[in-house]
């Protein structure tokens, strides 16, 4: 019966750990990205880069600058979103590129500045926010660069809050990913940038103007070619010098993927947006190409460990103390790419054995690299047989140095006694002979 149980446990463990490759998810190949200068795909929860194209190359940031502007402005103004601000001509000085049409003298909610900047890329909104936070554009830009340094963006230099081209203003995809991560961690900013339609109403107006998000990954207003259901907001824009820039986010299965694409172009023949195309491919690759996989289950026996002093069994099964779940490619071949090894810290256990007693470790490897380890514990209680325990105590005592010394001493004393008795008898015998004569 014991032999049959062992065989069943071993078969179950083998079946679960070395499951047939045919059961794995169909392969999701790394996408072919073309028509962009640099691109990066990153998984937040596992701090892992999943795709990189020239991610350390210095490029012009274009509208991705607004991620930093929004991040700093929200940090300073989050408690004042419902307040209104009257725009001054000083706030609009130096504004170029796309505008929301805000004019000096008009009053509007601070919240509207965030929506128009993140949904439409409005540079006038970015400049007004900069003034509200720091009093001037120059002071705000200084704050932008200080924050960038604090985030480890060592190859980034900001020159204005909107992203319009200036030769000194550069970044990399790797640096942009750092501010993208900080931005995405703010649910309100992510929500604003993910809004498809917003009613932009100036203070005192009974009716507003509907504005639509120009990020084609989340909006179907202009085209459905790049729409991706799992995508969530962030930023889209372009300059002639930078090309089209997209930063986006996708969330699925408890995982968050961030994507940065810089240097895209509009294909003159087809009108295709290479930046949006690349971003959609990358986000889809993250969502469909990777997942958490449970490789070790606490209910699955790993091996058996000998047990003494029990009349009912001579072994106990060892189980993983906890689950090992690892972020891996969806198409991982578990039979060939995942391997296991265990190390026992005990050669055997003496009953009584309490369920959950530590007895070793199980290590998990992916393509030869260790990706997890878990303690092995006993899976059952094992009772001690008292008769066997007594025999074991006797055996243990008999093997002890004191017992051996006692036996030797007894043997010596017995020998001395025998020799002494023999000597006395010989002496008496000699005396008896003398009296006889």
Q: Can you offer a commentary on this structure?
A:
The protein has 437 residues and is an alpha+beta fold. The chain is 35% helix and 24% strand. α2 packs antiparallel against α3, α2 packs across α4 (123-134) and α3 (110-120) crosses α4. Residues 1-26 and 433-437 have low confidence and may be disordered.
Keywords:
single chain, alpha+beta, Peptidoglycan synthesis regulatory factor (PBP3), Domain 2, Beta-lactamase, disordered N terminus, disordered C terminus
User: Any idea what the CATH superfamily of the largest domain is called?
Assistant: DD-peptidase/beta-lactamase superfamily
Q: Percent of residues in helical segments?
A: 25-40%
The largest sheet has its strands arranged as: 14-16-17-12-11-15
Shape label: elongated
Largest sheet: 6 strands, mixed
What letter string, H or E per element, gives the SSE order?
HEEHEEHHHHHEEEEEHEEEEHEEEEHH
Taken together, the total number of domains comes to 3
| CATH hierarchy: architecture of the largest domain | 3-Layer(aba) Sandwich
What portion of the residues fall into strands of 2 or more residues?
15-25%
Mean pLDDT: 87
Number of strands: 17
Topology:
Layout: H1 2-17, E1 38-43, E2 48-53, H2 65-77, E3 84-86, E4 107-109, H3 110-120, H4 123-134, H5 137-150, H6 173-184, H7 187-193, E5 197-200, E6 209-212, E7 235-239, E8 243-252, E9 255-264, H8 274-289, E10 290-296, E11 303-308, E12 315-320, E13 324-329, H9 334-337, E14 338-344, E15 349-350, E16 358-366, E17 369-378, H10 386-398, H11 401-436
Parallel strand pairs: 11-15
Antiparallel strand pairs: 1-2, 1-9, 3-4, 5-6, 7-8, 8-9, 10-13, 11-12, 12-17, 14-16, 16-17
Helix pairs in contact: 2-3, 2-4, 2-6, 3-4, 4-5
């Amino acid at each position: 019966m014991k032999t049959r149980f062992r065989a069943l446990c071993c078969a179950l463990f083998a079946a679960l750990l070395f499951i047939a490759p045919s059961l794995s998810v169909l392969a999701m190949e790394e996408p072919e990205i073309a028509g962009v200068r640099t691109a990066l795909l990153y998984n937040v929860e596992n701090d892992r880069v999943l795709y990189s194209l020239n991610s350390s190359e210095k490029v012009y940031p274009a509208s991705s600058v607004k991620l930093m502007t929004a991040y700093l402005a929200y940090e300073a103004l989050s408690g004042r979103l419902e307040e209104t601000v009257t725009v001054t001509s000083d706030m609009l000085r130096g504004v170029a590129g796309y505008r929301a049409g805000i004019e000096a003298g008009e009053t509007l909610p601070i919240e509207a500045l965030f929506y128009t900047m993140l949904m439409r890329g409005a540079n006038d909104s970015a400049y007004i926010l900069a003034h509200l936070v720091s009093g001037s554009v120059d002071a705000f830009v200084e704050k932008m660069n200080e924050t960038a340094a604090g985030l480890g963006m060592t190859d980034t230099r900001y020159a204005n809050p909107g992203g319009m081209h200036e030769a000194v203003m550069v970044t990399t995809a790797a640096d942009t990913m750092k501010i993208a991560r900080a931005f995405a961690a703010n649910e309100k900013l992510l929500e604003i940038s993910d809004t498809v339609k917003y009613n932009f109403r100036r203070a005192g107006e009974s009716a507003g103007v509907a504005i639509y998000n120009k990020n084609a990954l989340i909006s179907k207003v202009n085209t459905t070619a790049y729409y991706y259901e799992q995508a969530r907001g962030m930023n889209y824009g372009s300059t002639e010098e930078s090309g089209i820039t997209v930063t986006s986010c996708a969330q699925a299965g408890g995982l968050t993927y961030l994507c940065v694409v810089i240097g895209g172009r509009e294909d003159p023949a087809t009108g295709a947006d290479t930046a949006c195309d690349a971003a959609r491919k990358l986000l889809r690759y993250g969502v469909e190409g990777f997942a958490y996989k449970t490789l070790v289950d606490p209910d699955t026996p790993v091996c058996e460990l000998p047990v003494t002093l029990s009349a009912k069994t001579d072994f106990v099964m060892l189980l993983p103390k906890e689950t090992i779940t690892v972020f891996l490619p969806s198409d991982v071949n578990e039979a060939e790419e995942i391997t296991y090894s265990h190390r026992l810290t005990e050669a055997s256990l003496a009953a009584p054995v309490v369920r959950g007693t530590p007895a070793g470790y199980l290590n998990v490897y992916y393509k030869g690299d260790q990706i997890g380890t878990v303690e092995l514990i006993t899976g059952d209680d094992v009772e001690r047989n008292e008769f066997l325990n007594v025999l074991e105590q006797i055996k243990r005592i008999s093997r002890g140095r004191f017992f051996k010394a006692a036996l030797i001493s007894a043997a010596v004393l017995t020998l001395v006694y025998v020799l002494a008795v023999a000597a006395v008898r010989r002496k008496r015998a000699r005396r008896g002979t003398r009296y006889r004569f």
